Please model this.
Amino acid sequence: MANVLSQSEIDELLSALDAGESISMEDHSEDENAGVRVYDFRTANKFYKEQMRTLNVVFDNFAYAMANKMTGMLHTVCEVEVISVEEQSFGEFNNSLPDPVVLGVVEMAPLSGSLLVEMSSSLVYGYVARLFGGTADYTMSDKSFTEIEMSIVESVLYQTMDIMRESWEKIADVNPVLKRIETSSQFTQITALNEPSAIVTFNVQLDDIQGMMSICIPHIAIQPIAKLLTTVNWSLSTTDMRQESKEDILKDQVDNTYVTMQAHFNNTVTTLREILNMKKGDIICIDHSIREYITVNVEQLPKFKGVVGSENKKYAVQIAEIIKESEDFE
Model:
């Protein structure tokens, strides 16, 4: 009874026969299958929506921190924005890579395996131009990279590893390490081609150019911390950090900042002839009294006055006076 035609369908058939038109019996069967699509279990999403949302939050934080870091490093305004966080097979990501391209292979314990950090050639040349004092408006982005340019890129990627560590600290204590840099996708197959991967894509604005940056995280890599990739975990970590005042955080950062100290005598002036005539055993009289303090500089700024001595068979300086910031020193 399911194949019984309605009166309107019978009328349409009769009209078509009278007009001499061909009759297709497939139209109605297609209507019955409308809205049905073939499902391939091999391409099922393995990243939960909660995990993708958490990755989005993590890399939003990464983009903000990277923009600040690159702005200070390159001495120009740098904007970094997350365009998308989506799941693809590693093969699709690998086939979409341009040529030439910079690919950083990163190991990030406790994650298993490796991650890929991809930077477009236009972005790389923008970094190189800025670090050499120029403007990031390089247009010849299709030539291969030189050793000097790769060395510059390596230093930028090392800075990126520090930002990556800070961005993940609310989820897990990770230790990203840059293992090597490649310029061809043929040498960076870090997982099977059909392995689902989270692809995070960034747009980087630098002076007059826009470049793309991507991070590829295979699904197998996140398994050791899969249970931690939840927005609840992120929220709880943020709440704990808010309990610590901003002053305490700033003080801790300042206290752990490394600075260079130098202790020196007064400058002594002599002629080049006297220097050329010096021989072994000659004595140089410096313009500094033995009763006078020596100056201790911190990052080239005079901060202390001290007395020269020794401690544990090493030269030492004992602080005798603190130089106030209001005093004028040339």
Q: What stands out?
A: Residues 49-74 form the longest helix (26 residues). The two ends are 104 Å apart (CA to CA). The chain has nine helices and ten strands. Strands lie at 78-89, 101-109, 115-120, 175-182, 196-206, 209-218, 261-264, 294-298, 301-311, 314-322.
